[in-house]
Amino acid sequence: MRKILTVLLTTNFLFSSSVSLISCNIDKKKDVIDISLIKNTNLGELYVDTQNKLPSLDAIVSAMNDKNINLNLKSRYVKIDDTLTQNETTAKITVIDLSSNFKGSVVVNYSIVKANSEKIRLSSLIDVTDLQSITFTNDDSLKSLPSIDDVFLGMKAMNPKTMEIKRSEIRKGFFGTTQISFCIEAFGEKYTGSTVFNFKKLDSSKVSIAKAFTNNNLGEMSFIESLPSKEVFLKAFKEKNSSSSDFSINDFEFYEKGSDSETIEIIGNNKYSNLSHARFSYIKK
What is the 3-state secondary structure (H, E, C) of 17-67? Predict the structure, then answer.
């Protein structure tokens, strides 16, 4: 009788373990989001400034997230697929191999709106809304949120076109601010509109690389390869940021080339946190 009970209990345990393993595998598969199945592919109006004819990848991904709750897609995991030429109303977005949480491709539709000639829309200057990690210098004690100054610094670090915006020209927006997002609203004579940025708190004793510079428009750089060398980049960086004379070649690493051909993203190193990012624009000479 004991032998029979032992066999039954062992069999039951193995069966339960098998079910658990199968269940875990199923759950993992459910975590992978097929972007071809998103419900809202009509992204509405996307603003572009007078320098751009088509919306950027980051602008499209931001609109996809706005139209599809809990999608949380990151622009670094997708590309604008050249199997369908992007135009003024359509683009094909395809997941690249870097992502383990997304798969597939989707054709999205939008309409282009040129920025108002009298006032510049803030969204037309924003290519990146995912600010990666930012330093909290003035936490909201109740909600543990960054201050508007922290987000303003992160916005400028990742969006070279916003470098001329002054702190006095923006304020905290009322809609879109959560534990992981923060709305910045432009006001005054020159800018209008608002943009919601995603962020996470920089948990490090090292400082953000955004504090290393005041200008991320580097102008002309002369180089032969597809990307500038660290030496060429550093030379241009110091020419545009004379107060950062102690910024060295060991303080940064290249992270990725931007969605267009003349932006480059770096991450901190050495005395700067390797969780902090900054993006620079340049013109290849």
Answer: HHHHHHHHHHHHHHHCEEHHHCCCCEEEEEEECCCCCCCCHHHHHHHHHHH
| Bridge partners of residue 112, in order along the sequence | 46
Segments of the chain scoring below 70 in pLDDT:
1-30, 49-52, 115-117, 137-144, 174-177, 203-204, 256-261
Is 134 found in the same domain as 109? no
Whether 13 is in a domain gets the answer no
118: Cβ contacts below 8 Å, ≥ 6 apart: none
Work out how many domains the chain is built from and give that number: 3
Round to whole Å and give the CA distance between 243 and 266: 19
pLDDT tens by residue, 176-235: 667 788 889 887 778 888 899 988 877 667 788 888 888 989 988 888 887 788 999 999
Task: Look at residue 235 and tell me if it is in a domain.
Answer: yes
Instruction: Residue 156: give the domain boundaries.
Output: 121-201
